[in-house]
Amino acid sequence: MDKSPPKHLLETIYQQLLPRLQIQSVNPRNPIQVSYLSQPWRLLGKGNYAAVVYHPDYPECVVKIYAPGRSGFEEEVEVYRRLGSHPAFSECLYAKDSFLILKRLYGTTLYDCMQYGLAIPRQVIRDIDEALDYARRCSLYPHDVHGRNVMMHQGRGLVVDISDFLHLGACSKWNDLKKAYYWLYLPVLCPLRLPVPYSALDIIRKSYRLATSFKTSCCQLLLWWNNLDS
To answer: SUPFAM superfamilies, alphabetically (predicted)?
Structure first.
């Protein structure tokens, strides 16, 4: 890595954070569970693979720790190596023993913007589009880009989670989110500035996942039928 994290931060991770941390992945389709996190470490977020924490003495860095049994650590390190430095992405400062130290990105996820009724300007969408194009030029394949994996900070767009950018399969999540943004959010929700309750957002998220799974199953069935008929 081009940059190095503070030496004392590394010592604190190995001596205080990792020996006491208790995380587990119960269901690979749901966020991992964090049972214990020693003070003064604070939980910043968690996904299906890993937890993201930070130390208040080092607010410009975050530590992403993969849950035991969850794969993807080596792939994420490679993605950050290819991305290098770009204003819409974080940077990896250290990677070893199933955890990464990353430059912290500040902002509000688009998912939370909807929940709080915050306006999302068009520039945010343009920035994320440009960042994903940049990733493709780095021989990456933007995957799993959705409302919880992108953020807004001071009117600009950021991409938070790049862990699946080596996946070759097509992913329509970002394009689907953009359609909802231009067709529903801008003409209807944005002028009203009404917060969308978390319960409603969760229903939309689960319904989208179900619809996507159904669509995939139908495509697989049609492919099987065509092969059977040929």
So the answer is: Protein kinase-like (PK-like) (SSF56112)
